[in-house]
Design a protein that fits this description.
Layout (H helix, E strand, L loop, with lengths): L2 E5 L4 H12 L3 E6 L10 E4 L13 E7 L4 H10 L2 E8 L27 H16 L4 E4 L2 E3 L8 H9 L4 E4 L5 E2 L1 E3 H14 L5 E3 L6 E2 H11 L6 E4 L21 H6 L6 H14 L9 H8 L8
Parallel strand pairs: 1-2, 1-4, 2-3, 4-5, 5-6, 6-11, 7-10, 8-13
Antiparallel strand pairs: 9-12
Helix pairs in contact: 2-3, 4-6
């Protein structure tokens, strides 16, 4: 039975990871300030990662799974850790600049991405800090993560449109493509890393194929038991005012991941899981005022007849 430290453990990715390993019978510890409800089956280490003191010094962990957002966050944790075996860092595809050749490979030069800005550059610095001190660490760079516990208003926004009987406002013809990865597949891939210990230590992770935003919206509506009615928006309006994603299409080369883990969760199945979770936890999603903007901008056609 592995003893695992998960930083965070109260929101989306880190919470799902903590519950995933607790359900597998691992001894899971979560490190957070105890400002949110804790998951069942985990052990809380209540502390601020930037002021850890001796909170971790005498602990041994088989695995550390970290979602740090900065080099400072990495260094503070490493300074405080006692003994551990493996370290996995959940980074981001935001480390790749939008102007580089796609699909982005693990060896694509890293730099600021104009869409992600400081979030991406901070992840770059976090990766550098980690590899400088722990060259054996594994770094994962996912695209858009989705699945149960997603507190970001993406698929949940489309579910709300379906449940409220609203038509959906789609940027242009809906041909822009997005790449997703189910948070459960992220966990399964970490299992494989810990079991096989591959020589590669940096992996893009994601579904093998991207999907058009129109198809994604239609699948979200279908998962909610509805059929989507689409209004195409060609107006000169920032799509982030009414849609969950930037006007930015990118694609990761995930061939290294798929050599180790050939299968992936079917996107529609994953969206069904997301909808079932959202039905029971609508208050756990950070909602944005998309509906208010839509109703101000296109008041005559926002709702289905």
């Amino acid at each position: 039975m592995k003893k695992i430290l998960v930083t965070g453990g109260t929101v989306f990715v880190s919470r799902y990871i903590a519950e995933y390993y607790a359900a597998k019978g691992c001894e899971v510890y979560v490190l957070n300030r105890n400002s949110r409800k804790q998951s069942k089956g985990v052990n809380l280490i209540q502390a601020d990662r930037f002021h850890l003191g001796e909170a971790l010094r005498n602990e041994h962990f088989d695995v550390v799974i970290d979602t740090a957002y900065s080099a400072e966050g990495i260094n503070c944790l490493l300074d405080a850790l006692g003994d551990y075996e493996d370290y996995i860092f959940i980074s981001s595809s935001a480390v790749y600049p939008e102007y580089e050749t796609q699909p982005f490979r693990e060896d694509t030069p890293l730099a600021e991405n104009k869409y992600w800005g400081k979030y991406g550059t901070d992840k770059i610095e976090a990766e550098k800090a980690l590899l400088k001190r722990v060259p054996s660490a594994y770094i994962l760079r996912p695209p858009y993560l989705y699945g149960p516990m997603n507190n970001i208003y993406r698929e949940a926004f489309v579910f709300d449109c379906a449940l409220r009987g609203r038509c959906f406002y789609l940027p242009k013809d809906g041909g822009m493509k997005l790449q997703f990865f189910h948070v459960g597949d992220l966990c399964r891939f970490m299992d494989i890393l810990l079991m096989k210990k591959p020589g590669e230590h940096i992996f893009n992770v994601g579904n093998l194929n991207a999907v058009s935003i129109r198809h994604w919206v239609e699948m979200c509506f279908c998962a909610a038991g509805k059929e989507a009615e689409i209004n195409k928006v060609y107006d000169d309006v920032d799509q982030r005012q009414y849609f969950s994603f930037y006007d930015y299409e990118y694609y990761l080369d995930v061939s290294k991941q798929h050599e180790l883990m050939p299968d992936e969760t079917d996107l529609y199945q994953g969206l069904e899981e997301s909808f079932l979770w959202y039905q029971d936890h609508p208050d756990q999603v950070r909602k944005k005022p998309y509906f208010e903007f839509i109703d101000r901008t296109w008041p005559a056609v926002s709702h289905l007849p």
